[in-house]
């Protein structure tokens, strides 16, 4: 740079410029030289980065454009920081101001590049995140906050000419304020770590939160919110703390299992529970519900009804025979004797599941009359 300065001074004198105008013209020309060199370094650096990026992308890796732009902008700033003080060597305050300004610019670009690098890893993830990927996604959110915080501290320290460590040490007095400002972020981080490390919920899960209007598929999990698209296509957001502190239902276990459970309770009138008469037994044999040998001795119509329904469910092709299937009697109540029908359907798809449940339960209701039992029903008040 000293050689260039001497050459420029000779060129200025050769052009007939003399006196006080020489330093002014010299500073202008040298500043233009620095700008041109910085621009050339930007172009060369950008082309070099693009060339390296194309090589990397051939291997299947995608890079964030903001990362490439931020890195390429750091190169000319380094050139300006190294050369511009030599231009204004006679003016210390200008040299100091330019040095601090370019240092702050480099800090901002480095901060944006670091954040863009984290976003690049986020973009490489698929739609169905594993627990580990979701954990690192939450952790990246914290890293972004830390990077912005450190970038701001370093930039302020450079502007006022102080050590960044001195500023960080001085923040101890304002830690309570910072804890208050980032309270939701910190609590969200802790709750998010609990959700992901324990594999409680991930993107794509179907969840239901009883104490809120949440019944749909998880679309996004961040440090402070869990975004869910309900089945009516409304978007509901809840905090991770809500899922951790309160109970919620994750249906992924059902979707990955061999069947979806049906658990229905029906009340029957006590006045129609009685010993089966010969006429009733004969009707049951004629309809093929039982054989004559199966109806020997005293039989209760409710017991026959319960045994037949259980046999019918076990033989139905829509019911998963490898999972529990039973009809059990519950504790008697003032509204009748409850029977619980407990079984699993092989088809877990919502529409098909609901139709199959309705078909089976309607048949169970219709069979009650054949066994001379009556489903309890209160009489509407007039």
Automatic annotation (TrEMBL):
Pfam families: MS_channel_2nd
Transmembrane segments: 7-25, 31-53, 65-91, 103-121, 142-161, 167-193
A Gene Ontology molecular function term of the record: mechanosensitive monoatomic ion channel activity
Main location (coarse class): membrane
The entry's keywords: Membrane, Transmembrane, Transmembrane helix
Cellular component GO terms held in the UniProt record: plasma membrane
Presence of keyword Disulfide bond: no
InterPro entries referenced in this protein's UniProt entry, alphabetically: LSM_dom_sf, MscS_beta-dom_sf, MscS_channel_2nd, YbdG
Any one Gene Ontology BP term: cellular response to osmotic stress
Compartment(s) where it occurs, according to its Swiss-Prot or TrEMBL record: Membrane
Keyword Membrane assigned: yes
Domain Mechanosensitive ion channel MscS: 184-251
Protein known as: Mechanosensitive ion channel MscS domain-containing protein
Species of origin: Segatella oulorum F0390
